[in-house]
Predict the 3D structure of the following.
Amino acid sequence: MGSVATFAPDQSRHIATVLRMRPGDRVVVFDGTGAEYIAELETVTPTRTAARIIETHRGVSPALHLALLQGVPTGAKMDDIVRMGTELGVTEFIPFISARTVAIGRGRVGRWLRIAMEAAKQCRRSDVPAVHTPAPLPAALDRVAGYDLVLLLWEGEESRTIAQALAANGRAKRVAIVIGPEGGFASEEVARATAGGAVPVTVGPLILRTETAGVAALAMVSYELMLRPAAGSR
């Protein structure tokens, strides 16, 4: 105990001028590694803020390892995907470029990581998900080759649901969800992914936007693997 935490200039400005905190006030500090610290402010200015660590606790981190493989969408859609995905427990974001991808996300990884950090703070999550550089779809799939289950959302799959795929694969702890870009997947991409072990699933008869599909799938997976057992035990 007694270690000193210093804050970045934008955080210092927020603490001093927006929150109007003063030396002696206590704050909860996260470093992105999974721990949570109670710290007492010692120096508070708009340009420099420091606090002394007085308690260390295990923070709140997702119990499930979730990867979201997302075809890079156009515009700022990925910003929302990263923000909502962080709130829903994504462990790592793996953007990919495929046959029907229009955008490639060049130079935006830093922004996505900052969004993930802010979202983690907002939802009191003590770890920050990894955000990878966009890569071709085969390379993205290689990253999750060792996962317990890889779910591929595909409009061509009309019967197998996420719940059914999860039930057929036991208590998966490492799950990847693959979402195509605005134009969806080419048939040869689906064939290659399924040959590598990915399981095509549907989220219903309606065609969802790429920025909606991942959020819906993440919520379904989280419910099936973390909330349904608790609900059933009552």
